[in-house]
Task: structure prediction
Amino acid sequence: MIKRTVSAVIGIPLLLFFIYLGGIYFTGAVMLLSLLASIELGRILKRIGIKEMQSFLYTGALLFPLLLSFEPSWLPNFLVLFIFSGMIISLSHYPDAGLLDIGANFYSLFYIAFGFAHFILLRQMEQGLLLVAYAFSVIWTTDIGAFLIGTWLGKRPFFDQISPNKTLEGAAGGLLSGIAGGLVYCILVNRMMPLDNMGFLIFLTPVLSVIGQIGDLFESALKRMARTKDTSQLIPGHGGVLDRFDSALWVIPLLYHILQIRIKIFL
Result:
């Protein structure tokens, strides 16, 4: 618990610092996180018995965030190019890599590189700094609430085949604390400066809290299949990069695209 607390005390301000800086500094930090998470996921694939296409995964982990930081509208084009390049790379692994291996590597690219690229896309939106901070406020308060309520009151198992420590009470506590965290964040920020879409963000908070918990369950399922507790020991008390950003890889892309859809419909 001490290691976990110390890592959080150091890691959270550091992350917020790079979010605040934005630009090339935030892009560099996201690229590093994306690469480390890809390495961790590659290890999981190996443990499951999937052949890892390292050049495809690692190149995508770096290029997706980097290229989209220059021109976000190129997202569909990058997707098509990476799909074709992945199919070409898969030929070099034939016949060792089967269809399951190729499919798993493609999905891993989208999960990690595509997910982390959305950190940059969200940060580049109008009031992007506030939006990224809002997303993490919901994620972190959800995690804290789920952990505390689950520890104190948790009795009924919740997806115990995936994670034996998950409880229904913990999930409900995480949802309530996530809603409270998002609400408090929006109110406090709006008192300091006008927060665009404040009402919409408050409405969206419970959805993001639930999605964050699903993202955590998804990553737990991957680890369960690989028979490992953590993706790495990089962050003392927390595990690996993927362990810490599993919820964010679901929440931030969803938030970005919901906001984009809303802008295109109503503006």
